[in-house]
Description:
Order of helices and strands: EHEEEEHEEE
Low-confidence stretches: none
Pfam family, one: Glyoxalase
Protein name: VOC family protein
Domain VOC: 7-124
InterPro entries: Glyas_Bleomycin-R_OHBP_Dase, Glyas_Fos-R_dOase_dom, VOC_core
Radius of gyration: 15 Å
CATH class: Alpha Beta
Region (Disordered): 94-127
CATH architecture: Roll
Amino acid sequence: MSYKPQGYSSVSPYLVTHDATAVIHFLKEAFNGQELRRYERDDGSIMHAEVKLDDSVIMIAQSTEGWPGYKAHIHLYVPDSIAVYHKALEAGGQSVQEPVKKDDSDRRGGVSDPAGNTWWISTQVTE
């Protein structure tokens, strides 16, 4: 047996947020996320969930009094940053920056999700 689940990378961002359900819905709609697991508390809030985006797993939990939520910045490579940026806006994301090519090899834009996390959506366009 492997030391980690099949298909998981060694590093996974873990988002603790005030609205885990909304973030999961956003990830599914904006980035074609696939929900892998969900464990709920007695009150129905999300104790732990996992959403797969391409080859990576994002772990998510609902904040509680003892586990406050924090906003995060997550970088996501996609085949077409412009199309995915617009899809993320349609899914309820708020624009942080339209995709642009700057001084590195990527065209990158940003959107914030319903919990205020910023998703940097990027496509490498030069080497």
